[in-house]
Amino acid sequence: MSEALPAIHCLRCGMRMESRQAYGGLRPVCPACGHVHFEDPKVAAAALVERDGRLLLVRRANNPARGQWTLPAGFVDADEDPQAAAARECLEETGLEVRVTRLLDVIAGREHPRGASIVIVYLAEAAGGELKAGDDADEVAFFPADGLPALAFRATRQAVQRWADGRRSML
Ligand SMILES: [Zn+2]
User: Which architecture characterizes domain 43-170 according to CATH?
Assistant: First the structure.
């Protein structure tokens, strides 16, 4: 038996699951009842807020990528609308109340062990509040597209690139 996956027990019968090939990948499979366990994705939501042509970013206070900049973002709660999660995280990290205007991108692929496996990025506009770093951000600022700081994570770079491309296409 492979130890490639952490030991879990069958939700149906309580037997210790084994790592086996099932449905095109290595998954926990119950040797007694045949139940196959699928891991739920961890989903995060991010807000991309532009004001006067500048992009809102937060500086990470914690590792990984401490000191680098990202979009305000965080995990979506189980019963939460991802748009509401993006707005909530933005308020927590930047002090700004925002209104989501549209979907910008959905980015798949976990980048670190505690990271999300899916990041949903929304365009949003500031609707109130005052700029103040909070939660796991220690600084918050607006940056011009041609003067961005060091960005943390591929998902951030991809979303910011998409935003920059969209701005260019509108010029
Ligand atoms: Zn079982």
Answer: Alpha-Beta Complex (3.90)
Question: Cα of 40 to ligand 1 centre, how many Å?
Answer: 19
Q: Among positive and negative, which fits the CA dihedral 141, 130, 82, 117?
A: positive
Answer yes or no: are the C-beta atoms of 97 and 126 closer than 8 Å: yes
**pLDDT tens, position by position, 62-117:** 999 999 999 999 999 999 999 999 999 999 999 999 999 999 999 999 888 888 99
Spacing, Cα 5 to ligand 1 middle (Å): 17
Q: What is the pLDDT of residue 6?
A: 66
Quote the CA–CA distance of 53 and 44 in Å, as a whole number: 25
Angstrom distance (rounded) from CA 93 to CA 114 = 18
| Three-class secondary structure of residue 90 per DSSP | helix
Catalytic residues: 139
